Amino acid sequence: SQTIHQWPATLVQPVGSPLSLECTVEGTSNPNLYWYRQAAGRGLQLLFYSVGIGQISSEVPQNLSASRPQDRQFILSSKKLLLSDSGFYLCAWSVREIDTQYFGPGTRLTVL
Amino acid sequence: GQNIDQPTEMTATEGAIVQINCTYQTSGFNGLFWYQQHAGEAPTFLSYNVLDGLEEKGRFSSFLSRSKGYSYLLLKELQMKDSASYLCAVMDINYQLIWGAGTKLIIKP
């Protein structure tokens, strides 16, 4: 069966510091991968998605970036965090674009 | 623009039935999803509708009317563990999920 991992689970970072969140999927090949952010009381916001190694689509202009160095690894990064980057970051995977998305456990980021 | 509307909060009694509504306006339609999200946790998939009608899965059922841009999630025999937020999401013409803000369901004994 497929499993999706995210780490760390929680993170507290100062403004201006860098960020690296990692997501890995097990039990499937060439998944579609997604990064979402969830702010309190709001719907999930799609940040990036990837249909293959090295292929990244950005949905929202921001100071975040994503990379997919391996088939089942998806990384979310920032060079300098802003207060507005605080939120619950979720990684998800699907078999194809039209299929159900399954979420990892998430990373709660607080920027102070 | 694209929009998903669902009530912010609902309250129901243990053992009862509750219906959570979702209306949508999107660019194209490739299916509607319902997810459950407990506080502090990730969303988990509940149901998928792409054709009009009712899909039943145990205590949970989901209904879709594409002509009305409307869906509902029906939860029967409510249990305390059903206290959670329920997220409605529609897949648009570009295969991207458009998410509602979620309905927080409070179950009282």
Describe the structure.
The complex is a heterodimer of chains A (112) and B (109). By secondary structure, chain A is mostly beta strands. Chain A contains no helices and 11 strands. Chain A has strands spanning 3-7, 10-13, 19-26, 32-38, 45-52, 55-58, 64-70, 73-78, 87-94, 102-103, 107-111. In chain A, a hairpin with a 7-residue loop joins strand 9 and strand 10 (102-103). Chain B is mainly β. Chain B is built from no helices and 11 strands. The radius of gyration of chain B is 13 Å and the shape is globular. The interface between A and B is medium-sized, with 19 and 23 residues.
List the helices and strands and how they pair.
The complex is a heterodimer of chains A (112) and B (109).
Chain A: E1 3-7, E2 10-13, E3 19-26, E4 32-38, E5 45-52, E6 55-58, E7 64-70, E8 73-78, E9 87-94, E10 102-103, E11 107-111
Parallel strand pairs in A: 2-11
Antiparallel strand pairs in A: 1-3, 3-8, 4-5, 4-9, 5-6, 7-8, 9-10, 9-11
Chain B: E1 3-5, E2 9-13, E3 18-25, E4 32-37, E5 44-49, E6 53-57, E7 60-65, E8 70-75, E9 84-91, E10 97-99, E11 103-108
List keywords for this structure.
heterodimer, A: 112 residues, mainly beta, seven-stranded mixed sheet, four-stranded antiparallel sheet, 11 strands, B: 109 residues, five-stranded antiparallel sheet, globular
Largest interface summary = A-B, 19 and 23 residues
Query: Which sequence of SSEs, written as H and E, runs from N to C of chain B?
Result: EEEEEEEEEEE
Briefly note the structural class of the backbone of chain B: mainly beta
Strand content of chain A: over 45%
Shape of chain B: globular
Biggest β-sheet description of chain B: 6 strands, mixed
Instruction: Note poorly predicted spans of chain A.
Output: none
Order of helices and strands of chain A: EEEEEEEEEEE
Distance between the termini of chain B: 40 Å
Tell me, rounded to a whole number, the average pLDDT of chain A.
94
